[in-house]
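pasting for the record
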Amino acid sequence: MKRSLLTALAILTLSPLRADDDTPVPPEIQALAEAFVSALKSGDDTALLACWHTPETLAKLEEAQELAEGSTPEEAAKDYQREIKNQQRDHAVILHRATSIRAFITKNLGDLAALKLTKVELDLDDDAPADQPTYDDVDFDLTTADGTPIVISIDDAVQLNGTWKFKDRLEERIAITLPNTPD
């Protein structure tokens, strides 16, 4: 736990370096962010994972990509199974990190239920295909019970089959901004 606190404190020096982001947040992403924060606060891991695309959905995407690149159906099926396992492992990591974030906030920054989403920041992925819009580096600016600003991040938000959800992992770090000290 001390290492987590030291990591969080080390990030403090990087907080002022965050650039202002002009990317507008679509209403679907705002609603997804609110669902994520609500699930984080409540400790509802099922609701938390519902904010992510399922392992099967992401594995089907990988399989389709493999077939489009000329892989045999057998090779694509192997990749499908491997991707399912990778995504299930990622979901386990997400749950572990969410539990750690909850514990850290509760222990050091007050009541988890008082956590408030103040802003969502994201970057449009210019390299994403037109049929798969993607946002990189989804940041949730939050305030804790004692008013401390923190930032929690997720790698990507992706629209698949008409639904926006997260892809990849919940970041292992949170950024904390300490108040200015009086002169």
